[in-house]
Amino acid sequence: ADWVKRATTSGVGMLKRFANTLGAYRSGILAYYDFDRLSTGPLEGTNNKIKTLQKMAYGFRD
């Protein structure tokens, strides 16, 4: 987009950083909208619960 080019060539550091971050995650951001707003959030939540249970079970014997 035109504003991204202008942002990266501007002298504003935070704006340049924001534009670069959007560029780095561009494909993932667009894929979110291409695939009916599919998110890995629920899966990451499940993985977090599994890791928490593993930490809680540390020291127990089989």
List keywords for this structure.
single chain, 62 residues, mainly alpha, 4 helices, 73% helix, 0% strand, Transposase_DDE, Transposase
Describe this structure in words.
The mean pLDDT is 91. With 62 residues, the chain is an all-alpha fold. The protein is elongated. Helix 1 crosses helix 2. Helices cover 73% and strands 0% of the residues. It has one domain (2-56). Residues 2-62 form the Transposase IS204/IS1001/IS1096/IS1165 DDE domain.
Overall structural class, as computed from helix and strand content, comes to: mainly alpha
Average pLDDT number: 91
Specify the biggest β-sheet.
Answer: none
Helix content: over 70%
Shape: elongated
- Compute the separation of the termini in Å: 57 Å
Pfam families: DDE_Tnp_ISL3
Organism: Candidatus Kentrum sp. TUN
InterPro entries: Transposase_DDE
Domain Transposase IS204/IS1001/IS1096/IS1165 DDE: 2-62
Topology overview:
Blueprint: H1 2-9, H2 13-24, H3 26-34, H4 41-56
Concise account of the structure shown:
With 62 residues, this protein is an all-alpha fold. It has helices spanning 2-9, 13-24, 26-34, 41-56.
